[in-house]
Fold long-chain-fatty-acid--CoA ligase.
Amino acid sequence: DDSDKSFNFLCFPLYLLRPAPACALRPVAEMTMWFTVLAGLVVLSLSYVKAFCPHLQADCVYIVRSLGLGLRLLKYRRRKPIYSVLDCFLDAVKRHPAKTFLHFEGREYSYEDVDRQSNKVGRALQAEARLKEGDTVALFLPNEPCFVWTWLGLAKLGCPAALLNFNIRSKSLLHCFSCCGAKVLITCTGETPCDHTQDAVEEILPTLREQGISVYLLSDKCGVQGINPLSDRISKASDEPLPRDLRANIHIRSTALYIYTSGTTGLPKAAVVTHERVWAASFLQAASGVTSEDVFYINLPLYHSAGFLIGLCGSIERGNTVILRRKFSASQFWDDCRKHNVTVMQYIGETLRYLCNMPKKENEKNHKVRIAIGNGLRTDVWTEFLNRFGDIKIRELYAATEGNIGFINYTSKIGAVGRVNFVHRFLFPYTLIKFDIEKEEPVRNSQGLCIEAATGETGLLVGKITHRSPFVGYAGNKQQTEKKRLSDVLEKGDLYFNTGDLLRFDKDNFVYFQDRVGDTFRWKGENVATSEVADILTMAHCILEANVYGVKVDGHEGRIGMAAVTLKEGQDFDCSDTYSYVVKYLPAYARPRFIRVQPCLEMTGTFKMKKVKLVEEGFNPSLITDPLYFLDLEKKKYVLLTEDIYKAITLKEIKL
């Protein structure tokens, strides 16, 4: 009956636990044995994976994350009208208008504050400069909030912005301005004694006026004829949203920005950055595990792709808060991080070295920083940084502003700049090819094709130019654009982007940066074009020719500037005159600290200056018979490089 059924149901668990007859034990024993075997296989498999594939989990997480970001980019490519980083910012304004977007020198600006200010800037420029969609505007501004909302205001008008390095002067500034095709230049007065942007613009103002360039100053007034104050007009402008149809014809591969890079030769070049490339770079925060809850610390210059694309645009994509500083300060860095609860920081190798060189304190690990994103980190500094400042995930990157290939070290493997995986290589084909350092060209076989470097061998990184991984090139410089294209690499008719960088892949698929090729070296986090420095040196009255290169200094990242020069007939090396030209026309990081006076410069058969031997010989006065000079900032002239000075440099008693 029903009561019996209820009783049987309630007693069913006890029924299962009843003693089993002997004949029934065999299947149970067999099942137990198979479960034991299966569990053992699982344990063995996990042990095998841990022993022989220690990064499998990180690889899987990164691949899944990358595929998700790739699908988003594919969706944005197809979306009409365009969905740009600007639109992402506007969506963030709608989601959390009161959330702090920028924090700068004690002041907070919410997403809504920045949006409204950018509307005012856009309307003021539209009225004063008559800007229309597609007009390029050059920004010659330091790291300040006005940089951010001026760029956003221009983006709302559909105007690309050219981000000028505010350290450059004279000829270099004119060159950078001219090659982007801008008709408008925006600068500011400079709120600190270190900012001389207005002075630099006034120096080239006659040339700008001759070319019909409109110059605007972010100030209420200006007594210089030809420079128009803009702040008063901005304050009076409406902060109502600008109509979207002002940028109706902008698409995903329209130019969004011009960011300047030295590349491998010549003066700075204006790399064309499309809206698609802005998205790709901004995704690096997401790929590194950054979220909307993070507080992102930017102390790198916004005219750099690292500070602007990865830092600023990445924070817009994530919807987080940015702590913006004018420049890096080792003494205030950790105090800033603690004060603002910073969780993600940016770096270049030199900045972390500066932090490690600071006197040790008891509270060094008392912070909330969990991720550091950057590039150029030396292995010894990497290790010391982690030991001193705690378990921070280092996300070392490799990328180039104009390039079509990049890597990210998502495993925190010390010394590596990334990791090779099949998905990345399938979507964005790349390879390492053998490179002749002396001839500065790829090694080719009898069929005229390049030879791939073996695992563990240093080679030139090249990325295949495809629809998914395009190379747009440089504004107003078709010749330099073509020089970066390399054809007949692996098969006849193919086309690759020449990064100009030497890398190495190891047997565990990690990627290591080895060196740069060409006429560029890197010092103090900046790329230095040797031809630009040589042009300035030959302005000195005594110098006939100059061959500029970078040399290694123990304990320092990159290469410091050095020049081999020949003198004009009947002239001696003028220490004071050369110093004055170098200091006046070159930023600090580009000034050659060592000069070697030679009777003649060694040339190739095609009249190219040879550098390899000079680089190898360095600046040791005991090994070099030519006169050597050192740039002495205290004496404000070049002085003879003696054994004592050389020793002081190697012992770090003299600061470089």
About this structure: Residues 12-17 have pLDDT under 50 and may be disordered.
